[in-house]
Amino acid sequence: KEILEKYRDLFTLQWEGVIGNMCVPSQAEWEQLLTNCSAFLFYGMERFMSHILLNWLVAVNIPKCRLVILLDLVRSQQSYQRITNSDIHKSCLHTALERPTETAMLLSLTGVGSVIATQWYTTLQENAERLEVLFENLLSYGKTAGQTVHVLQ
């Protein structure tokens, strides 16, 4: 919340979304957020694709979304239990499509211009630090997504 407040005036007056643990977005809310945005940020637990219906994503076209930032792959005992229970009902192929590289490819195929994503499990603190670097470079300095990723490396 602190990072969003710090950069609020630099990116948009039309910021929409779900912040904190107010509620878990429904599939319809995920769909609305993704299809009506020019940039999408996910900062959360486990795999981003575990929150989205795969069948919906592969059938959708979202060319208005120029940038997706996925700061996911954070694990807690509770999130691990949720994902384990969810994965039981999925095929191996379906679960494989939720990995970072496959997620980026699927988002790209739907029309997303650029995808910035974590590739391995991390902590909320490390993702907060990444978010700070991303916003500072993208919004304060006006760097491109590629230049910003280079800074993160």
UniProtKB/TrEMBL annotation:
InterPro entries, sorted: CFAP46
Protein's GO biological process = axoneme assembly; cilium movement involved in cell motility
Question: Which PANTHER family did the record assign?
Answer: CILIA- AND FLAGELLA-ASSOCIATED PROTEIN 46
Name of the protein = CFA46 protein
Q: What's the source species for this entry? A: Struthidea cinerea
- Give the gene name: Cfap46
